[in-house]
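Incident log, entry 3
Record: Protein O-mannosyl-transferase TMEM260 isoform X3 (598 residues)
Problem: checksum mismatch between cached and fresh output.
Input:
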Amino acid sequence: MGLHGDGGGPARRQAARVGPRRSGGLRGGVAVFAAVAAVFTLTLPPSVPGGDSGELITAAHELGVAHPPGYPLFTLVAKLAIILFPFGSVAYRVNLLCGLFGAVAASLLFFTVFRLSGSCAGGILAAGVFSFSRLTWQWSIAAEVFSLNNLFVGLLMALTVHFEEAATAQERSKVSKIGAFCCGLSLCNQHTIVLYVLCIVPWILFQLLKEKELSLGALWKLGLYFSAGLLPYTYLPVSSYLNQARWTWGDQTTLLGFLTHFLREEYGTFSLAKSEVGSSMSEILLSQMTNMRTELSFNIQALAVWANICLARKDRQNPSLVWLFTGMFCIYSLFFAWRANLDISKPLFMGVVERFWMQSNAVVAVLAGVGLPALVSESNRVLNTSGLQCLEWLSATLFVIYQIYSNYSICDQSTNYVIDKFAKNLLASVPHDAIILLRGDLPGNSLRYMHYCEGLRPDISLVDQEMMTYEWYLPKVAKHLPGVKFPGNRWNPVEGILPSGMVTFNLYRFLEINKQKETFVCIGIHEGDPTWKKNYSLWPWGSCDKLVSSEIVFNPEEWIKLTRNMYNWTEEYGRFDPSSWESVANEEMWQARRTNYG
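Fresh output:
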């Protein structure tokens, strides 16, 4: 593609370079995969991480449906990993799978840069700087959807380069069909990649039109391949219909239920959260650029800019792909900053938002990988020498080594059991046959993982406070909670019968009908329903609270005896990054200690 102004027609130049670059790209890609996979595997967390990981693992383990939009591809592949990997905890197996996804993403970034520029050093720079940045590393070794999304970002860019190199109509047709399928498949994971799909697809169609290879029949076939890529979404209604999972989200057995889940309406379509007032677009863009400089370095940003400046020169051939990738980066960054409705001044929300910047960082890394050999080539031309080639390798090596050196201690999670210990302490603290009313991602997802995947405390019942307000929750989940009685179909502070025939009940009624069981709330109680105050009090119970009949007199001595040695917690206060779930768990445990010990 046009980093070097070589002579001859485009088809001849492409044919001349594809052979050696194809074999070299494959060998280099395999080497990059092996190196990144080795590092990621050494630093994997041995148990469940915080955030959505516990829920995603549980959905895969139970073959249920994850939170919107459902992530069917991740769920199915994670289930395979749980079955096929013969070692480690259930969480470790899915963490390992995600690490391998991250290694494949790195090899695809290498492949993309190598095929664009012919430079192994540029490919290693792109793969290494991106993969070993703190943000990518951290989310590539946790059971999350982000490393699979990174894989698809690399795959779509690699296929786009492969399409541009294709010398015959038959090869272009083949690559475009594979690409259409992969575009559909990528949308079965994280929906943010749709912005890249909407950039790449028109570019591909325009190239086919220029070559007079785009007909209605060809367009129809591409549509079919794209639709075939979306087939994993059929898993959602199948899982919902069978209703065998002890944990699942939503009812996808109807078209309305499916679309509600697919479009993330319960979170807010094209938003990160519902009813949240976030930071301004300019604040998020500025934070993104600042974060990118921290994650990748200013030099990488400069090389990405240089790739565009260098290719704009008239003697360079066909810079369209570099400009396409740059356009993808700009469109994604602007759209995400517009729709990311979270207040990034709060550390935990900042941690949520920054994960989505990996998608743009991958493109910047590729552009920097292209910019490095272009800069060396230009320096050689200006200085009329060819002796600077070693600087290309030296620069790439130093950049990657610096990334690993800077981030290894931060990203090494091989001894991180914080969320594991948090969940186990909470489960161990409640008496036999208790009901735990869950609230929030940290207790909800970690306790569900321990209860359903690791089989801890089968005697207790986990009921989600927020989920009980949804119409689908109790019809789906109540049968898997045989020890819990529900006086209606949906939790609502105002009792009655809805127009749909659904019977609502409040928390007071729920507690009255389950008097035979001890009930706890973890962490906190839903503010929208104060009816429990009629006849119940909240007694502190570590990080949780116990709902106790007001008729029972509080005995401080008895309470101290029950709660004094409730938790075995040894983590130092304030030792975790404030944006991490480990920090939240540690804070909860220390707050519980202060409450119990005074």
